[in-house]
Every structure is written in C-alpha cells, then in structure tokens.
Specification:
By secondary structure, this protein is an alpha+beta fold. About 40% of the residues lie in helices and about 15% in strands. The protein is built from seven helices and four strands. The chain has helices at about 5-15, 15-25, 30-40, 110-120, 125-135, 140-145, 150-160; strands at about 50-55, 60-65, 70-80, 85-90. The mean pLDDT is about 90.
Length: about 170
C-alpha cells in the first residue's frame, strides 16, 4: 500500500504564480541551483498558448501569447547556408533572438519557444519552473521545501495536513 504524501500533493496543487512566489522564498543559492536545472533549455511550456498571425510586409508571423493576449515578437522564414528553410525570431523591440549561439531554428514552434523564453511578459520561464518543481519526485520535492524559512515550511505542512472541511 502506498502512502499519499499530502505535503507534496498540496504543493503540486498550488497555482503557477503561487508556486513561484513560494520558490522565491528559498535561500538564494538553492533557488539559483533550481533555476539552472529547471531552465537549462528553452521550452514552450504547457499552459502557454501562442498563436501565429500573419505579419504584414514580411514572410512570417507575429507571435501572440494568449489569455491574456500579449504580442511577443515576429518569426520570419529564411534559408540557411545549405538552402533549407529556417525560422528567425525577433523581439517586439526589433532585437534578434539568440540563445546559446543559436539564432535560427528548423521548426517554427522551436523559434516561437525561443522568442517566448526571452520575452518576460510571456510567462514561459515561470510556467517551466513550476512544471519542473511539480515533476520532482516526492523526496526531491521535500528536500527542496526544507530550504524554506521555518515559518513558511510549517505553514505549508499545516495547510497540507488540515482535515477536510476545516476552515483555513
């Protein structure tokens, strides 16, 4: 028989913003190490919906994050030295997107992910960090939570193990 870990379940149920606010209370070295692992590679995280709208005057699209609508930048089609189609991303400010020396992508979705990654208003990093923490095995999540200030950790435990139907 397996035992349900109420603390881990409670932390996984927190909203993205609330979970990220909790993580910000970790000691700086712990938070930095977490971010380095969780955000090592740009991704278009679940929960971030982007739409491609025709961009007037260019062979490409305006990338828009949805709910709420936020314009992130532009993707254009180009050719690499071998003649293959690649996509380039440009921020709203007109700056080319370059991650780890990469400035063109073979897939449009990868270029959109890179654009979202460098655009704070997209929330991509917040969503990716929350998803990473939720995916941690229970022991690793507990180890991470132990780094919280004692009062905050105690509060989490209290809420997680509060009997159902009792007032907050």
């Amino acid at each position: 028989m397996t035992h349900r870990d109420e603390l881990a379940a409670h932390v996984r149920r927190l909203g993205n913003h609330e979970l990220n606010e909790l993580l910000l209370q970790l000691p700086k070295p712990s938070f930095t190490a977490l971010v380095e692992v969780a955000l090592a590679r740009p991704v278009l995280p679940a929960g971030l919906v982007v739409r491609f709208e025709p961009a007037p005057g260019v062979d490409g699209w305006t990338v828009v994050a949805c709910a709420p609508r936020r314009r992130l930048g532009t993707l254009t089609r180009d050719r690499d030295p071998g003649g293959r189609v690649v996509y380039r991303a440009t921020t709203r400010a007109g700056d080319p997107v370059q991650l780890s020396g990469i400035s063109s992508w073979r897939r449009r979705g990868d270029a959109a992910a890179a654009l979202a990654w460098v655009t704070p208003v997209s929330g991509a990093r917040c969503l990716a960090l929350a998803a990473h923490v939720r995916a941690l095995p229970d022991p690793a999540l507990h180890n991470l939570l132990r780094g919280l200030p004692r009062e905050r950790f105690d509060e989490l435990v209290e809420v997680a193990y509060r009997p159902e139907g009792t007032a907050a």
